[in-house]
Design brief:
Blueprint (H helix, E strand, L loop, with lengths): L1 H8 L15 H19 L3 E6 L1 H13 L3 E6 L6
Parallel strand pairs: 1-2
Helix pairs in contact: 2-3
């Protein structure tokens, strides 16, 4: 489903697809942490901007902090930061 957003908005191709799929909150978050840890180890970004649903934001922010990067959560509730 996300493919249509990339095509219609003219967004660049993703550099990593975590292919998490559906599951419990813990299972999704765990899979994201594993995938993001691999991606951050490989690419070593200076800053990570985390946008998405609750599971994505918590996993992205946690993985970024654990990788000694700065994580900037964005999305539901971000205006309260």
């Amino acid at each position: 489903m996300d493919r249509i957003f990339f095509e219609q908005l003219g967004l660049p191709e993703v550099t990593a697809n975590l292919d998490v799929g559906s599951g419990s909150h813990g299972k999704q978050t765990g899979k994201m942490l594993i995938g993001l840890d691999r991606a951050f180890s490989k690419d070593r970004p200076d800053v990570v901007l985390v946008e998405g649903d609750t599971n994505t934001v918590i996993a992205g922010a946690l993985a970024a902090v654990k990788a000694w990067n700065q994580g900037w959560p964005c999305g539901g509730g971000a205006e309260e930061l």
